[in-house]
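If your schedule permits, I should be very grateful for your opinion on a structural question. I have a record of one protein: its chain in single-letter code and its fold written as discrete structure tokens. Kindly check, if you would, that the fold set down in the tokens agrees with what the sequence suggests. I remain grateful for any guidance, and I place the record below:

***
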Amino acid sequence: MNFHQSWKFIPRCVCIYVLTNHSIYSMITGKILRDGQNGNGLVSSNGDQYEFSIEKHWKSDTPPKLGGNVNIEIDSNGQLLTVQALDIQSEVSQRFKQISGKVQAEGLPVAKELGEHIRQNFVATVGIPRIVIFVGLLISWYVLSTLVIQVSSRYSVDLNLFEVLGVASNGGLDSLGRGKAPSSGFYGFLAWVSALLLFLPLLWKHRLAAWGAAAPLVFMVLTLLSLWLKIRSSSSQARSMAGGLGGDMAAQMADEMMKAVMQAISLGLGFYVALAFAIAGAFIAFKESR
């Protein structure tokens, strides 16, 4: 059984819902045509009429009212046994409790069975390694530090991947000085897409779908390259501006300053952990596509 075949259990859930709720429409079973204050009363149900006596048949605490809705009980011979005023609110509440109990007794096991089949087929289709890689990437991207900036001997700034992506999409290292980590923007969206492509075999039954597992590694390489190019661009702009204002000496000072900045930046644990998981994904892609 594959992942898509698990949905065959859904009609069973729907049938239980329909069958248990169908009985709500039989709560109002009759209507009083004559209240019985002067002689016998008269009720009508499904086109049949029955005479009733307040002393013998009426089972409610309040007297019958003309036009009131009632529940009536008929024996196997079609003889009237009891007539009872219908309290719609209490009746609905009672029926709701009955239906809830029935759904819990019959519907929940089916829902649990459906969930278990979906889980088993999901694991069988994508495999445990892909799931582990996906979780590992999220932890290394969100929780661990991708870049560490050593501001001073006692103070450093740790950035996770999505904060680094914010730097890459908002103009380079100068965006770090604005007090708040910039939004990851389109780069963040691509990060999620690359991680979710691990599960591409769920949607595309083709040998090439295995290469979705290589998407995180491709994304990380391209992101690192993009960030490096932005840093180079910022360094070049700073050198040109300094050279235009102060000549060669100012340009040399700008170069020394950028070198000091680059020396203060190092890759954090999160980068290496994510890279390891991404390489593992690429290895799986290569192995499964052969």
